[in-house]
Amino acid sequence: VTVKSSNEDTVAAAGEGGDDPPKEEPWKTALKTTEVDIEVGEFRGHKVSLWDLFHSRYIPEENRKELLELYEAGELTLEQVRTVVSTIVTRAAAAAAAAAAAGRAEPAAPVNEPRAEPVATEAEPTPLHGD
To answer: Which of 28, 43, 83, 101 has minimal CB crowding within 10 Å?
Structure first.
């Protein structure tokens, strides 16, 4: 019963505070409404918002945070953000395509290497006999 009444209070409060939901930061609204044509991956053939590009698999989290901070602070214009994000997405998609074309055995090797190396070092200190 307590949970139910607190949910009703929350719903009532949200209904009363009609100003809260539309109060989105202008910079965020601009990213969500600015669309670009990116002819790579799942974006090929249709326009996508800068916001969606920012949160795609092509933009590493550290880059996304840095770019958003610079844009929010006014150090980058919307046009600069569009150019940088488009470039990152295009290059990342091209690199992913090249890696896939090169063969699928390669990505597994780096994952196994670090695990095998400490075992070989513990068992036998001479690197020449590690394999």
So the answer is: 101
